[in-house]
Specification:
The chain is mostly helical. The protein has five helices and no strands.
């Protein structure tokens, strides 16, 4: 599951890169005078919509994966003695504090870029307004990707299990 999430996040990142490059070409004055500018704008919008939808899907799945693994850890540690359970849950809270903000920010950045891109496309905003936002959205998928690597996924879909420490 974690490998699939990494793959979808990487594909969304590639889509953001391609769409950003097309958007910068469309916004530049050099390419706006070219006869193929209309085709480039159509292609940019044609790539932007699926890229944002794919990014929203993959980042939502990452967040749900984190929620599910947190629930799994809590269920697995329910039978532990209180001190061990408290220690495991403290580690889980620290992990959630590290991974949830980048995943949420990536989700919100994709939404923001989509809205700003639509405003630029309808000429409600100047083209330069999406430059910083698209770069931020593209870069925000990297911490989310790195935070999903921290989950400890192993090849073959097996993930790390918390084993109860046995006292001698």
């Amino acid at each position: 599951m974690a490998v699939a999430l990494l793959l979808t996040t990487a594909l969304a990142l590639a889509g953001f890169l391609a769409t950003s490059a097309q958007g910068f070409l469309v916004a530049s004055a050099i390419h706006s005078a070219a006869p193929l500018a209309g085709h480039l704008v159509t292609r940019h919008v044609g790539y932007a919509i699926p890229t944002v939808l794919f990014s929203l899907f993959s980042q939502s799945m990452v967040i749900f994966y984190f929620i599910g693994t947190g629930r799994l850890v809590k269920d697995e540690t329910a039978g532990y003695p209180e001190p061990e359970r408290r220690a495991v849950r403290a580690v889980l809270r620290r992990f959630k504090a590290r991974t949830s903000p980048p995943a949420t920010f990536a989700l919100l950045s994709a939404i923001g870029v989509f809205v700003l891109g639509g405003a630029v496309h309808t000429k409600a905003l100047p083209p330069c307004s999406t430059s910083a936002k698209s770069t931020r959205a593209r870069d925000s998928t990297e911490p989310a990707r790195r935070s999903s690597v921290v989950t400890g996924a192993r090849p073959g879909g097996r993930s790390l299990r918390i084993e109860r420490s046995r006292s001698p």
